Amino acid sequence: MSIGKKLHIGMSLAPTWLSGDAWRRADSDVEHLYSSEFYIDLAKRAEAAKLDFVFRPDALFLNAAAVEDGPGFASLDPTILLASIARETSRIGLLSTVSTTFYPPYVVARQIQSLNWISNGRAGWNIVTALDGNENFGLSAMPSAQERYERAAEFAKVVGLLWESYPHAALKVQREGAHYADPSLVKPINHQGTHFSVKGPLNLPACGEIPIPLIQAGASPAGRDFAASVADAVFLSAPDKEAGIEQRKDLRARAEAHGRKADDIRILPGLSLYLASSRAQALDLFAETHARLDKARKIASIREMTGLDLSQWPTDRRIRLADLPPPPPNVRSRTHSDLLRRVISREEPTVAELLMRPEVIGSAHWQVIGKVDDAIEQIKDWAVSGAMDGFIALPGGAVSSMRLVLEELAPRLVEEGLFREEYSGATFADHLRD
Ligand SMILES: Cc1cc2nc3c(=O)[nH]c(=O)nc-3n(C[C@H](O)[C@H](O)[C@H](O)COP(=O)(O)O)c2cc1C
Questions:
Q1: Does the N-terminal or the C-terminal CB of the chain have fewer CB atoms within 10 Å?
Q2: Tens of pLDDT along 283-316?
């Protein structure tokens, strides 16, 4: 078996292992969810396992009804949180999620470059175009996906220009002669575009010469094309290996069409890991986590993604592609609605089966429910099949599952020759180049 390069592995700090009913477990530590100590502890564990990065997804809205039965997406601001983690770690990459739909690029360029300084070159930017939250920013409707991606492309370009506008090389710091920086190298960007007008330069020099890694999530054709033009890695929703192979092939070809090398873009599917010491225990963990999942909420989400209303369907009735109305024009995430249509067309599941699929309950992520051995087998299989360049670990079910990922799965991947034993560099970009 030959895989060539080592895998790149990140872990979500979301924390996914407290979702569903898992936050109610005695050892969940959920009381400390809004403290930096909670996340510093996780990041230190992930750094001890030599992961490429930890990252924090983000949303700029709150579903108030959902707080009744779980923490959901209420969270600390990711960039501020990662700045506190930066002070307590020294090698692991710190990937912040910032939406291009609601923020101004000058602020984002400065925040991410600040995180880069505070962490000595370990910042990364997860570029999202957001799913909701328009009313928190004075917009009566969510801009269409097409508009959001157009804005994202211009946004990323402006941020890149701002990062170059005060290059590290301009810093001279010569006390004798009183030369702090060379102003001839610090230039305005004078950007006048469709969405932004930004003069520049940024009021913060670049930290070193190495570019800050950009990660993207969103796999509609527009999303893939945007990712292929700028992203160093893509956070993928791929519920099965074939979805990973197809998307990886497509993204690599699109990167080449943009004049980049196929290897410049790493494909990292999310991987939900419900791990325990036996398969039966792992299945219990999964079942307990989802025991009280609100059926009405799942049915509403299927209706929103596909237009199909299953509320009156018997649970044993099979759903076929022909049952689906034409795709609704303005779905929040084309990625997720396409993956849901795909599973209906491929598997014709019953209503009960569909309601437990990762496309409905797990953001359409690849899912392993079993022992560490089971996870290793699947990871090897996906890697040799060309379905991924690594993954973003989303441990599920309990704290014990997260610990198994970091304390057993990662070392086993090292033994198998699939993952680094030690960091070879000090920056996030170094880890992605390993
Ligand atoms: C795997 C994945 C993770 C995402 N994470 C976030 C996130 O943390 N915050 C956010 O606002 N949007 C997130 N998104 C939404 C995307 O940025 C994008 O707005 C959405 O998927 C619509 O684009 P699409 O039509 O290409 O799917 C995510 C999407 C995917 C597929």
A1: N
A2: 999 999 988 878 898 999 999 999 999 999 999 9
Q: Hey, which of 100, 333, 338, 367 would you mutate to test ligand 1's pocket, going by the most ligand atoms within 8 Å of its Cβ?
A: 333
| Amino acid occupying residue 342 | R
Give the structural domain span for 195.
8-278+366-433
* Interval between CA 246 and ligand 1 midpoint (Å): 19
Among residues 125, 306, 326, 334, which one has the least CA distance to residue 224? 334
Q: Are residues 149 and 296 in the same domain?
A: no
Q: Is the pLDDT of residue 54 over 70?
A: yes
Nearest to 362 by CA among 298, 409, 416, 421: 298
Please list the alpha-helical segments (H only) found in 334-424. Answer: 334-347, 351-355, 358-361, 372-384, 399-404, 410-415
Taking CA atoms only, the protein residue closest to ligand 1 atom 15 is 130
Check pocket membership of 97 for ligand 1, CB cut-off 6 A. yes
Mean pLDDT confidence for 181-199: 98
Q: Please indicate, yes or no, if residue 388 is contained in any of the structural domains.
A: yes
Q: How many domains are contained in the chain? A: 2
Helix (H, G, I), strand (E, B) or coil at 140: coil
